[in-house]
Amino acid sequence: MTNILQPTLSNIAIILFMYLCMSSLVSNRKSINKYLFSMSVLIVTSACVIFLFYLPIRYEGYLFDLRLVPLVVFSLLLGWKHAIPALVIAVSWRLGMGGAGALPGVLFGMTFPVLLALLFHKKDRAMPSPISLALLMTASWLLSDLPILFLVPNGLEVFREIYLVRFFGLQLSAFILYFFISQLDREVVLKRKLKFYAERDPLTGLYNMRYFENRIKKMSSTRTAYIVMIDIDHFKKINDTFGHLNGDSVLKNVAATLSNLIPTHCSVLGRYGGEEFILYLEVDSKERLMNLVSGILSGIERTPFYAEDKKLNITVSIGVAELKDATKLYQAIEKADNSLYASKQNGRNQISYAM
To answer: Which residue, 156, 268, 291, 313, is most buried by CB atoms nearer than 10 A?
Structure first.
């Protein structure tokens, strides 16, 4: 039994090393080209399976390994686009190694379990429940090992000797891999949330001023840039009449409407504070600028907003100033804010330009 346990542990070590490689790829995914990422996943998965061929679990001249685990788990998680190429590479390598058990090994120990796992793959790459994984690994183990009864001399005796180690070795390594992948998923989700809240205003989901400023300083364009300040008219009255929760709801809806009114390819929208928003715009001409800003003004006025099922007529006041140098962002903001103040003083629901 010791001769079986030691190589089984070696197989598990190879699978864990594969996980470490995968976690490194996932952690750096944004800095890696998507085709290079897919190719790297393919290489890591295929290499793991191939390494397992050379660390067999030996019993009375018969060779086994835990190739099922990486093939089944990553087929389940990544789908056919990753699983089938990895399977083809591994199958080709195993057939190239030759041997009497090559063909049954690639059919029952690789191909059929992978096809079974693909039947349970979900498009959102959601992790299966532990029970589902246990059942799938059990079915894969049966597909892989039951043929021993019919294809191997003294098959029943061989099966009786190894089935416990094989079964628990497959289940243990699959659940170890499952645990680490689950932890990696949680880490990725947490990092995304932390990044979102580091960049975004928690109420409206728009960029906060720190990120807005950093983003503007990194932008470069041959077109003219402008800062547009947008303030909701009579917002205090909404808060006083309907309460701050309804006021927050109006803020969120105005932010969503603004996001739909501006072109995404040449703009950056953020929340400046309170009921005031800030917009960076790049345009080819002043005419284009005026059309976009006028569209914001009229778009907000035409959009129905509600508080406690009561329709509100929301309008905004707007101030615009040219941004000639990204390093002088706050000077441009001050000019746009002064223009916004002029719009307020002149009756609201209008645009003022600092020329």
So the answer is: 268
Average pLDDT over residues 269-273: 94
Task: Identify whether 204 is part of a domain.
Answer: no
Q: Could you please report the per-residue DSSP string of 185-252? A: HHHHHHHHHHHHHHHB-TTT-SBPHHHHHHHHHH---SSEEEEEEEEETTHHHHHHHH-HHHHHHHHH
**CATH value at residue 171:** 1.10.1760
For residues 291-300, average pLDDT: 95
pLDDT tens by residue, 244-263: 999 999 999 999 999 999 98
Number of domains in the chain: 2
Torsion, Cα of 287, 290, 293, 298 (10° steps): -110
Q: Are residues 217 and 193 in the same domain?
A: no
Residue 332 lies in domain: 209-354
CB 352 within 8 A of CB 342: yes
Cα separation of 298 and 294, whole Å? 6
What are the C-alpha distances in Å from 179 to residues 200, 251, 325? 31, 41, 51
- Give me the residue label for tokens 């990486």: 70
- Indicate if 185 and 230 belong to the same structural domain: no
pLDDT-derived band at 223, boundaries 50, 70, 90: confident
pTM of the full structure: 0.63
Contact 104, 131 (CB under 8 A): no
pLDDT at 162 over 90: no
